[in-house]
Task: inverse folding
């Protein structure tokens, strides 16, 4: 894959948008494209971060496995998202694993290069802080959702969130398997299936496999708010 492709990918990433062409070229020279077939690991729990990871295509899941073997999904990573920044800066071991749920391609920007840029470019440092702040805000929202909302409200909130990024907000394809989404929302697959069936019976959504049609967005949002 050409360095031009890597440069274009870096330029599109929000943390690098303000950088000069020369800086982008320099980063591209030292960055690495890595393909991960579905089911393979990007990194395992307990490993150290070697750089900034940016998903270019495919999909990843971040999760943990209990001593009993049960899996808990922490996050689903979509193209354009970065992951692992906090551990990179803390210079600690990953508390989660990252695994490809689809054939994926990751751009790895080396740790030494990121640290050098932070030391010498205040704009880059500010953008990195902004990215971490957004991630922290999302984490707080996730904790609030899992702590305070019912299973139905969790799923509706998730549905409304992904519909906001969809080309057609009323017709959505779930970005992961139902078992993965259930784990992300701290639900059992059976509870998620019952929740979807209930919303379908109420005439709020229509489900066909992984395709979900939102029939009445206003009523769905009102249900989410408990009104």
Result:
């Amino acid at each position: 894959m050409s360095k031009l492709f890597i440069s274009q990918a870096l330029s599109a990433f929000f943390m690098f948008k303000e950088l000069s062409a020369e800086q982008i070229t320099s980063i591209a020279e030292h960055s690495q494209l890595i393909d991960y077939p579905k089911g393979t690991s990007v990194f395992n729990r307990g490993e150290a971060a070697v750089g900034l990871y940016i998903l270019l295509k495919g999909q990843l899941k971040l999760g943990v496995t209990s001593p009993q073997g049960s899996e808990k999904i922490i996050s689903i990573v979509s193209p354009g998202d970065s992951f692992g920044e906090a551990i990179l800066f803390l210079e600690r071991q990953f508390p989660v694993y990252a695994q490809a749920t689809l054939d994926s391609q990751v751009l790895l920007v080396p740790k030494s290069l990121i640290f050098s840029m932070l030391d010498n470019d205040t704009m880059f440092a500010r953008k990195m802080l902004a990215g971490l702040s957004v991630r922290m805000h999302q984490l707080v929202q996730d904790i609030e959702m899992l702590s305070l909302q019912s299973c139905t409200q969790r799923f509706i909130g998730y549905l409304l969130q992904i519909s906001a990024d969809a080309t057609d907000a009323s017709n959505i394809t779930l970005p992961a398997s139902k078992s993965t989404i259930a784990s992300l929302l701290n639900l059992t697959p059976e509870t998620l299936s019952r929740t979807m069936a209930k919303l379908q019976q109420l005439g709020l959504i229509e489900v066909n496999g992984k395709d979900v049609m939102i029939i009445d967005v206003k009523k769905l949002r009102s249900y989410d708010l408990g009104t």
Remarks:
- The two ends are 52 Å apart (CA to CA).
- Residues 122-148 form the longest helix (27 residues).
- The chain has a mean pLDDT of 85.
- Residues 3-121 form a domain with the Jelly Rolls fold (CATH 2.60.120.10).
